[in-house]
Structures are given as structure tokens and as C-alpha cells.
Task: structure prediction
Amino acid sequence: MSTSRAVKVVGYVPSAPGCAGRTGVVAGAGELLAGLFGAAVRPACGAVGMNILPLDAPVEIGVVLEVSGGGGR
Result:
């Protein structure tokens, strides 16, 4: 099996109410994945502002990848 593309990126970013910069953090992750898998298909991106993340993490990124090949389940 191999990963053929990034389909979706969702980021959870700790930020103050009204902060507009959290989308830039997630867009950067999307650009990184587009560079790895080819810029022709950019992943859909979404950002969610949080008061605090577990373990005081600076950001949490969730990625949905498309996997192909392998012939298994």
C-alpha cells in the first residue's frame, strides 16, 4: 500500500477569542502535504480555535490520507 494524496487537514490551534491567524497554521500544514504528494491536488483544510490543547501542545493536526494499492482490505 502507498499513500497517494492528502485529502483533508484539520488543525486545532490554541488561540484567544477573535484571533484570525489560526487558519495560517493549518494552511502551512496543507502546503507541506501538497509538496509531499504533489501540488496538483491540495487537501481541504479547516482550523478550529481552542482555549487550550492537551499537554499544552502548540497545535494538533489531523490528516485524512488516500491509500492505494496492496490488494488487501
Observations:
- The mean pLDDT is 83.
- The beta strands are 2-14, 44-50, 60-68.
- The two ends are 10 Å apart (CA to CA).
